[in-house]
Structure formats: structure tokens, C-alpha cells
Amino acid sequence: MSKIIVNQTEITVLKYGDKDYISLTDMLRAKDGDFFIADWLRNRNTVEFLGIWEQIHNPDFNYGEFATIRSQAGLNNYKISVKEWVAKTNAIGLRAAAGRYGGTYAYRDIAFEFGMWVSAEFKIYLIQEFDRLKKAEQEQLGWDIKRNLAKINYRVHTDAIKENLIPPQLSAGQISFVYANEADVLNVALFGMTAKQWRDKNPDSKGNIRDYANVSQLVCLSNLESLNAVLINDGVPQAERLTKLNAVAIGQMKILTDDTRILKLEKSESAGEL
User: Fold this and answer.
1) Which of 60, 74, 127, 157 could form a disulfide with 44 if both were Cys (CB 3.0 to 4.6 A apart)?
2) Average pLDDT over the chain, rounded to whole?
3) How far is Cα 15 from Cα 96, in angstroms, rounded to an integer?
4) 79 — alpha (psi -120 to 50), left (phi > 0) or beta?
5) pLDDT of residue 265
6) Model pLDDT, residue 242
7) Nearest Cα to Cα of residue 138 among 4, 272, 1
8) Is 20 within 8 Å of 108 (Cβ atoms)?
9) Which helix or strand (DSSP H or E) is residue 23 part of?
10) CA distance 170 to 228
11) pLDDT for res 143
């Protein structure tokens, strides 16, 4: 639950799943005069807008019931509540909530449309404040990710290496082969192949092997880069460094793939939240 202030009116924003719904009940307090959400809902233009929105976003929308409502909308004796609208049409854009944060809530697109009914000025400020809320949430998410990565990185250096191996253990032939590009030393240690070998196996993929790495692999890769720099400064031959780096990658990846914080970050990344 979040709050935004629009023209000195406090408005609640709730999440249902991964969708934001804005309180129309709170927004109504900013409208002059004695009006109700039912007055807005009986308007034919409102019904037309809601119907189009549901047809685009809701595969389970009841078109038959909607057609009946649309034919009656705007008549003097016609009136429908949000609960009736949802029950009859199986709509998802409007919600009637009970409890502490009870009232009528609308998906943001619909809430912005309702804001115009309050006033054009109110709609503009509503969009502005909602965008500001989303930006603040994204900034907080970025901070949380950095904080969690720091904790995970610390665990890599303190947890014992577990038995199962994640990256493939390199063969003697791979270890003896000289890789001219130091970036490929890291690629082979972690992914078991060079950048060219990956491109040959994935000719239709854009970018490079590291563009397709998950969060666990990126954390491990960062640690391998630091370790490789130390080994180079110590004059360790490339074949020996590759052996050490591969062993470290195996141990770290086992730890990282078992870390619940990493799993949450990877789930957020795949859902587009990063």
C-alpha cells in the first residue's frame, strides 16, 4: 500500500498481484459537489471506455452482459454499482475492496480517466504524482538489489564449498590451451567455452555470452575478474590461473544457486522488475 497527494487530497494506491490500483473513493473527495462513483459508472461514455479496456486486457470479460449494460447506460432510471458491474461482466479494471483500505479501486488507466471526471487539472497532477511514486519505487528496488548483492558476495567468501559442481570441470586439453584474450580465460572458467565458441553454437543470438548470464553467474564473474587480476600480478601462468579460476567458479556457483536472495533477484529480473 502506498499514498500519493494530489491537490492536497491523499489517495491510496494498492497492489493486486503485480498491478497498481488507485482509490476512486479517495479521488472523489477532490470533486466539488455531491457526486458518487455510481453517477460516473452510469454514464454511457464511461461504460464504453470500460468495455473497450476490458476487451483489450481481460480475456474472460463477459461481452453478453456488457452489451446489455451498454444498451441501458445513460437512461434516467438506470444505475449500476461497481460490485454489480464486476459480478455481471467479470471485469478486472474496477475492484470494490472491504476492510481497512475499503472503497472502490481502479487500474491506473481507468483511474486516470476517472481523474478527468474530477477535473482536467486533477488528472494531470494525478499522473504526475503516480509517475513520481513509480520512480521512487524503482530507485528503492535498485538500492535493495545492491544491498542484497553485497550480502550475497560476502557469503561467497565465507560459506564452505558444497559437493555438487555447477560449471563443468575443465579437461586437461582445455587447461593446456593458451587463450590469447584474458576475457576468454574467465569465460572458459565459468561457462566452459570461449566467446567465439558460444557464438558458433548460438548464431541467431544477439550480443555475447555474458549478455545471457543470470544473476548468479554475473556475481561469480565479478569475483573471478578480481581474483584473476591478483593472479596475473603474482605472475601465475595462464594455464594454472585457469585451473584455479575454474575451481573457484565451481564452488561459488554452488553457493550462489542455493541462495534464496539470488533466486528472488533472478525471479524479479525474469519478470521485468529490474
Assistant:
1) 74
2) 82
3) 13
4) beta
5) 60
6) 92
7) 272
8) yes
9) strand 19-23
10) 17
11) 61
Name the nearest CA neighbour of 238 among 180, 152, 187: 180
Q: What is the largest CA-CA distance in the chain?
A: 89
Residue 258's pLDDT is: 72
CA distance 40 to 85: 12
Grid coordinates representing 259 are 541462495
Burial annotation 233-243 (CB, 10 A radius, 16+ → b, else e): eeeeebeebbb
The position carrying cell 491510496 is: 12
**What grid cell was written down for 16?**
493486486
Q: Do 91 and 85 contact (CB within 8 A), yes or no?
A: yes
Beta-carbon contacts of 223 under 8 Å, excluding residues fewer than 6 positions away, are 153, 156, 248, 252
Is the Cβ–Cβ distance between 105 and 24 less than 8 Å? yes
Q: What is the pLDDT of residues 49-106, one digit of tens each?
A: 999 999 999 999 999 999 999 999 888 888 889 999 999 999 999 998 887 778 899 9
Q: Helix, strand or coil for residue 61?
A: coil
Helix-helix angle 238-257:120-158, to 10 degrees: 120
Chain-centre distance of CA 10, in angstroms? 26
